[in-house]
Amino acid sequence: xxxxxxxxxxxxxxxxxxxxxxxxxxxxxxxxxxxxxxxxxxxxxxxxxxxxxxxxxxxxxxxxxxxxxxxxxxxxxxxxxxxxxxxxxxxxxxxxxxxxxxxxxxxxxxxxxxxxxxxxxxxxxxxxxxxxxxxxxxxxxxxxxxxxxxxxxxxxxxxxxxxxxxxxxxxxxxxxxxxxxxxxxxxxxxxxxxxxxxxxxxxxxxxxxxxxxxxxxxxxxxxxxxxxxxxxxxxxxxxxxxxxxxxxxxxxxxx
Length: 255
Known about the structure:
- The protein is 48% helix and 10% strand.
- It has helices at 5-14, 22-35, 54-67, 74-90, 113-120, 130-142, 147-154, 159-167, 190-196, 212-223, 237-246, and strands spanning 95-100, 103-108, 145-146, 171-176, 184-188.
- 12% of the residues are buried.
């Protein structure tokens, strides 16, 4: 049997519903070598001869063992998983590999998810509302972020959207800000990474519209009260002078 890392990884993922990490795969290879080592002739019981039919079999086993590397690097495992994932997508396989923060997991392809749902008698999953998606995006890119900062960006209350995200465990309380009143700060969870198919927050798409510094400046302006005068409202100064003169009382008549 030829050593095929991709098929071995696929078999490991099929065997469990839990995430399989790179360290888990490396431990499996280590155990394979520890348990598949052939019997040393010196360790054979005294007076027991090796059967003639055993020698060719042991040569085949030893050949298989020699094909399995004693140490698999994280890069080799990731490359094998990526290649396996490409093969499954090109073949329109019913399964996909989800790479999350805890490792790799075999999941049902979205095209076949409804069939599994019908087998289990589960209701259709509820979609996030546009308000919840906008709030989740703000938390993902600005975390840790306070409620007032989220409302300053959205321009409306985020109570219902934030409550929904907390119920789905996509967002969680991470601490308190060093600001007056010590407001609560929010951040994303590991479930958010699984939900979006990201391995880390560093894989979030970069924004080409506003930089973090521009967003911070925007939040500062939105949360800082500004006194607006007539000039800021666009009223011409000449009209203001004319209006002031018109309101003055006329001079008394000259005798």
